[in-house]
């Protein structure tokens, strides 16, 4: 079975690795604190989950899948610089039943394509 990679996965992963925007810089810092290399981490999704946070999901270099929320004050200039991580959860064993299952499968397919090209 082939999965289509979402442009969201490609765009958000590129932003994670290269963006100078406060939210992405803060996410890189948080991922490093969790032992993940941002240059080898794939962003499945990062969506506004409410007026004060983003809900996200990433795949680590070793294939683990994590979901999380980043809380920060969007009304304050540079508020994302102080984003706080909540709900960091390893969902490696259950991502296939989640709402992002299709996106996650596509992200894994994209990772495999890049590894083949090496």
Topology (elements, then pairings):
Layout: H1 7-18, H2 22-33, E1 42-50, E2 53-59, E3 65-71, E4 84-90, H3 101-117
Antiparallel strand pairs: 1-2, 2-3, 3-4
Helix pairs in contact: 1-2
Portion in strands: 25-35%
State the order of secondary-structure elements, H for helix, E for strand. Answer: HHEEEEH
Major sheet, described briefly? 4 strands, antiparallel
The number of distinct β-strands equals 4
- What structural class should be given to the helix and strand makeup? alpha+beta
Total helices: the number is 3
Distance between the termini: 22 Å
Strand order of the largest sheet: 1-2-3-4
Which value, in Å, is the CA radius of gyration? 14 Å
Spans where pLDDT lies below 50 across 5 or more residues: none
Helical content stands at 25-40%
- Which outline best applies? globular
């Amino acid at each position: 079975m082939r999965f289509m990679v979402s442009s969201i996965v490609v765009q958000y992963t590129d932003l994670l690795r290269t963006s100078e925007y406060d939210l992405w810089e803060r996410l890189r810092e948080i991922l490093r604190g969790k032992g993940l290399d941002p240059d080898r981490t794939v962003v499945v999704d990062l969506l506004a989950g409410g007026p004060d946070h983003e809900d996200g999901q990433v795949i680590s270099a070793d294939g683990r899948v994590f979901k999380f929320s980043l809380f920060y004050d969007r009304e304050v200039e540079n508020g994302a610089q102080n984003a706080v991580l909540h709900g960091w959860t390893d969902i490696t064993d259950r991502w296939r039943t989640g709402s992002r299952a299709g996106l996650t499968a596509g992200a894994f397919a994209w990772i495999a394509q890049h590894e083949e090209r090496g």
